[in-house]
Design brief:
By secondary structure, this protein is mainly α. The protein is built from eight helices and no strands. Helix 1 packs across helix 3, helix 2 crosses helix 3 and helix 6 packs across helix 7. The N and C termini lie far apart (about 70 Å).
Length: about 140
């Protein structure tokens, strides 16, 4: 005599919130941790994506360090968005966004544009205006 089948088809399953998700992520580490958990990945999996150690991911997620700029392109791809508050309606914001997407320093961006790295910094901070001829170069490439 067999065991009768139970009528599971009438059951409603509720998927609980994912454990560990940060409701209002603020830091880069918060964003990384949330995405890792959403993707059901371990820190070692994310470390492979970034080509860093598992300890590095642990430090980022625990806000004991932040990714250096060369990791920003991978970070943006991993998250699916730019996790920085940048006003991209301004030339300075567009420049910063462009530099972050490329993952390059002020110094390297300065070499591309034929200026000093500190000039790039002053443009991004709004301390000085970006000359029109440089805006054309930046935004033609972006």
């Amino acid at each position: 005599m067999g065991i009768p089948a139970l009528p599971f088809y009438d059951m409603n399953f509720v998927v609980p919130n994912q454990v560990g998700l940060i409701k209002n992520p603020i830091t880069i580490g918060d964003h990384i941790k949330n995405q890792r958990l959403k993707l059901h990945q371990f820190q070692k999996d994310v470390a492979k994506i970034f080509d860093v150690s598992t300890d590095t991911i642990t430090n980022w997620e625990n806000n004991r360090g932040v990714p250096q700029i060369q990791y920003y392109p991978t970070l943006i791809k991993f998250l699916g968005y730019l996790p920085f508050e940048i006003d991209i309606s301004t030339p300075a914001g567009k420049l910063k966004e462009y530099r972050f997407k490329l993952g390059i320093s002020h110094k390297k961006m300065g070499k591309i544009l034929g200026v000093d790295g500190s000039t790039i910094s002053s443009w991004e901070s709004g301390e000085h205006q970006i000359p029109k001829n440089k805006q054309l170069i930046i935004f033609a490439e972006n």
